[in-house]
Amino acid sequence: MFKGHGVHHIAIGVKNLERMKAFYQDVLSFNNVFVDFPEDEYPALHEVVRMPRPHYAAILFSQSAGGIIVELVQMTNPAPRPIRKDFRYGDIGLAKMTIAVSEVEGIFKELKGMIDFCSKPKLVMIPNYGEYQFVFCRDPEGNLIELISGPKISVQDRFGGVLWVGISVTDLVRSLSFYQDLVGFDSVLIKSHEAYSGLVDEVSGGKNTKVRSCVLKCSDAEGGIELFEVLEPRGRSVPFGSRWGDFGYAQVCLNGKQGDDIFEMASYFEKNGVEFLSGPQLMHDEREGAFFYMKDPDGIPVEFLVFLK
Fold first, then answer.
1. Which of 36, 238, 286, 304 is deepest in the core (most CB within 10 A)?
2. What's the pLDDT at 76?
3. What is the DSSP letter of 26?
């Protein structure tokens, strides 16, 4: 089994980078900037976007508490399109991010009017984990965000960082095998459960929504993945012809260990029958590194990133 090292970042294709940047910085306190890419041509991504001269601007940033980094990407070439015009919780693909907060009720009252909340805060009891409070909201372009707080979620100030990302899948057992056995998420934070059933109707587009989910982590790294399968109503498949950089949640980027051989990593996944979106690419930005893109069992883009030093 390959040994993974957690989630580095998630990417969201956006229509208006400045507006979205202001929301995440001013409202959600994403003020730790990892890297800010000016609008330019980035040839290393030509395989991923299926265009010879990809052109975009982007920022990668996180909250001061750390957690998973968020990347906002505004493509100019190829021209981006909506992944979906009416995204619903349960549609297959990267679906949401989960941010820890000090106290959901307090944040809800503080930010009401600044954030599009989907409902009032709710309480859920997770078997073998305990209870926590949660509320769903959307950013200015409709991307789904979950805010949570509870006894097992330690937050010193208002925000505690992105804890995990939510990936909606068609077959939870199949996806568990992929992310645990191949990708190396060797620790189960929250075992498979159906406690969210009936609590997510406001974001699923249905009534009495039935969903089962679990949260995986890497034992020696931060940043988890929530895999969830919406059983009723069933989620829609990844749209044919969607591209990296289209509007909406685009991909999850996983960490390789510093100094890992990117070509050996790619060979490992190729031998295990994983489909690639691009072969290994070297980058020479602020930190030297390498990456490749592949697909999970549902065709969802997954990037592996390794920093060389």
1. 304
2. 94
3. I
247: Cα separation from own chain's centroid? 14
Query: What count of other Cβ atoms lies within 10 Å of the Cβ of residue 295?
Result: 14
Residue with tokens 């976007």: 49
Task: Quickly tell me which residue has 């400045």 as its tokens.
Answer: 18
Dist. CA 281–CA 300, nearest whole Å: 19
Residues 6+ apart with CB under 8 A from 93: 83, 167, 168, 238, 249, 298, 300
Residues 135-184 pLDDT 10s: 999 999 999 999 999 999 989 889 999 999 999 999 999 999 999 999 99
- The secondary structure of residue 44, as a DSSP letter, is G
The CATH number of the domain holding residue 261 is: 3.10.180.10
CA–CA distance, 154 with 101 (Å, rounded to integer): 9
Q: Six-digit token pair at 256?
A: 């390789």
Residue 303: inside a domain, yes or no?
yes
